[in-house]
Specification:
Strands 12, 13, 14, 15, 16, 17 and 18 form a seven-stranded mixed β-sheet that branches. A hairpin with a 5-residue loop joins strand 4 (107-119) and strand 5 (125-134). Helix 10 (341-371) crosses helix 16 (500-510). This protein is elongated. 46% of the residues lie in helices and 24% in strands. The protein contains 21 helices and 23 strands. By secondary structure, the chain is of the alpha+beta class.
């Protein structure tokens, strides 16, 4: 007995020595070791086992409960079941993966493996040894792969797309679940062999084509792509698109094919429907082509008509303004002298008639330009309040004559500067305020200003409110039509062409705004304009920006370039009365010669002249440095279109004034540009 006990002890010591060496080897690879003495319940955890969980060796006792209380509650039953199965001899080894609580509170995945290394004579386990390995990173990768596969499967389903593999050497075909569904089959572990697939799932008319594409891909080693019909179990068919490459081994021999199958049934049905409709479309296209030819011919005719209309308008504007300049100018000269009362009254009538004719001409030209799509806007930085106040103050004498209260309301936080087309805005305001004063016999007229914002856009809101005769609902429906007034009695009583409101509304529409009316007979009217404006910090200067108005202390020397004799006389006499010495030039070339020889405070330049027109003359004066000083050049021309003004500024002129001219107009030009 003693000898046998000694042998057992020696074997145990040798076993312990081997276990110690094994433990050292295992822990050197980053794993932990545990040794469970089953009968006593004592467990020896290696230092590596403890550190794997974030603990120092002295912080974990050698008890099985230390392991049990750290295993995730969801994983502990499975782990214990695997332990019992191995202890009972049901499994050859213990192998379980579970989560364990790390010291810092997080869960880590552990691969727990081991086995019974010693049993007693009755087969009861005595010693159970195993290892712990941290497999958290692997589990995270596996989870990411599962998530990726799930997303890929979802994407396949959404795209009607499935993938498959064909091992050429073994003949094994594998399908993704979506491929089974595309063929109307329930997903299975094994896909049908290729020949079975061709015989049962591919439309008989497409089998040869299918086989040819596959054979060609295998022979040439090139990717394939073709469309075919799948036969579904319910007897219908579905159009599919197959595509994919061939994989080769190092020797260049094909070893496998991979590919995708995509549902294109809806597209093919659309193609068939399109083919069925093609003949109808071609017939319609032929008719359309014939109509296009006719429309092109009509468009060319309309274009020619518009060009002819534009040329006619420009010519008529010039030709009418030239004699008007003589009428209005000479009348202004005569009115500035000493006249008998009846003579003054007659001349005043001529002056008013000339002004009315000029206004009618301007209105007709504006309406024609709008209808022809040739009305151009000129948004510029400007001080808004003075512009609005001026539109009111211009009618104060007339309002005072009629004993009307004329009001102006500006919001406390109103912006100082904005960018918009000030000229066109002023034109609209003059029409609205002028109408309000004209059609109001007693009471008041007021211009009320407000601003509001919609997102980043600022809107200007101006209401012209009067207590005048008012307008009925029926009359209001036609009020904004050209040549329309409220009724014939109004037209006879108050006069006017009926163009102002039509032009005002269309101008506001061009500027992105609106013009609306609310009114009641015998109670008054409110015309409200609303348009977008851009608020700015300041008004930048430019070479044609008028200088500050200053009082003149000396006579000015003015060069007038004008070929029309009547216009020469009118301009010269008006300037003489305004304390100016005038030199006349009959064309642009004479103007250049005189400007190079003499010093002038101001040059008034007609645009259409023989020899050399005003545009070329201004360009040459600005470019060759021939002026003794940088004298302002102001165009005095019968060309009244917006593009004419832009052309004048581009040629180097400082300003543009449309004929006919008057004493007041020349006074403003001299105040702005004459200096002195």
């Amino acid at each position: 007995m003693t000898q046998r006990g000694n042998q057992t002890a020696e074997l145990s010591e040798a076993h312990d020595l081997l276990l110690t060496r094994y433990q050292a080897s295992v822990e050197g690879s980053g794993e932990g070791v545990w040794d469970w003495f089953v009968q006593s319940g004592r467990v020896v955890f290696s230092d590596g086992w403890k550190r794997m969980l974030g603990y120092e060796p002295h912080e974990i006792a050698d008890e099985l409960s230390e392991w049990e209380r750290r295993v995730h509650p969801e994983d502990l039953p499975g782990a214990m079941s695997d332990v019992r199965a191995h202890l009972e001899g049901t499994t050859p080894r213990y192998d379980n993966e579970h989560r364990m609580r790390h010291k810092d509170g997080r869960w880590i995945w552990i691969s727990d493996r081991g086995g019974v290394i010693q049993r007693d004579e009755q087969g009861r386990p005595l010693r159970f040894v195993g290892t712990h390995q941290d497999v958290t990173h692997r589990k995270q990768i596996e989870e990411a792969l599962r998530a990726t596969e799930a997303r890929y499967r979802a994407a396949e389903e959404l795209a009607g797309l499935g993938h498959w593999d064909f091992d050429i050497r073994t003949g094994v075909v594998s399908w993704s679940p979506q491929v089974f569904r595309l063929f109307g089959l329930a997903p299975a572990a094994q896909a049908p062999p290729l020949e079975v697939h061709l015989g049962e799932q591919v439309h008989p008319e497409d089998v040869d084509m299918f086989r040819d594409h596959v054979t060609q891909a295998l022979t040439l080693g090139t990717p394939y792509e073709f469309e075919y019909r799948a036969c579904l179990p319910d007897g219908t068919h579905r159009w599919l698109l197959g595509r994919g490459p061939v994989r080769k081994d190092d020797a260049g021999s094909p070893v496998s094919m991979t590919g995708t199958v995509q549902d294109i049934h809806a597209r093919k049905q659309a193609e068939l429907a399109a083919a069925a409709a093609k003949a109808e479309v071609e017939r319609a296209n032929a008719q359309l082509a014939e109509a296009v030819v006719q429309l092109q011919a009509l468009a060319e005719q309309a274009k020619d008509a518009n060009l002819a209309k534009s040329r006619f308008l420009a010519t008529m504007s010039h030709e009418i303004r030239t004699p008007l300049n003589g009428i209005i100018g000479m009348t202004s000269l005569l009115l500035s002298g000493d006249l008998e009362p009846d003579h003054r009254e007659s001349l005043s009538t001529i002056a008013r008639s000339g002004d009315a004719l000029l206004q009618l001409l301007n209105d007709i030209l504006d309406l024609s330009k709008i209808e022809a799509g040739r009305m151009l806007l000129d948004p510029q930085p400007l001080a808004l309040r003075p512009l609005l106040e001026d539109a009111v103050e211009l009618f104060r004498p007339k309002a005072d004559e009629k004993k009307l209260l004329l009001g102006f309301q500006w919001p406390r936080e109103g912006p100082r500067f904005v960018r918009c087309d000030g000229g066109r805005l002023r034109q609209v305001l003059l029409n609205l305020v002028g109408n309000a004063v004209k059609f109001t016999a007693q009471g008041s007229v007021s211009l009320q200003v407000s601003f509001d914002a919609e997102g980043t856009q600022t809107w200007l809101d101006v209401a012209v409110v009067d207590t005048g005769i008012g307008i009925s609902d029926e009359q209001a429906t036609h009020l904004f039509e050209p040549f329309t007034q409220a009724d014939e009695g109004t037209a006879r009583r108050f006069g006017g062409s009926g163009l102002g409101l039509a032009i005002s509304r269309r101008l506001l529409e061009l500027m992105g705004g609106t013009l609306t009316l609310s009114s009641a007979l015998a109670q008054g009217s409110t015309f409200r304009l609303r348009m977008p404006v851009e608020i700015i910090d300041h008004v930048p200067s430019a070479h044609h920006t008028p200088p500050p108005v200053r009082l003149r202390t000396r006579r000015l020397r003015v060069l007038v370039a004008e070929d029309n004799r009547v216009n020469q006389v009118v301009t010269e006499r008006l300037l003489n009365k305004l304390n100016c010495d005038v030199t006349l030039a009959a064309d642009g070339r004479q103007a250049i010669t005189l400007a190079q020889r003499h010093r002038y405070d101001l040059i008034l330049m007609d645009c259409q002249m023989p020899e050399l027109d005003g545009f070329e003359a201004a360009t040459m004066l600005r470019s060759d440095g021939g002026l003794s000083q940088d004298a302002p050049i102001v165009a005095l021309t019968a060309n009244a279109f917006h593009e004419d003004r832009q052309r004048c500024l581009a040629a180097g002129m400082n300003d543009h004034v449309a004929k006919p001219i008057s004493r007041d107009m020349l006074e403003r030009v001299l105040a702005r540009w004459g200096g002195g």
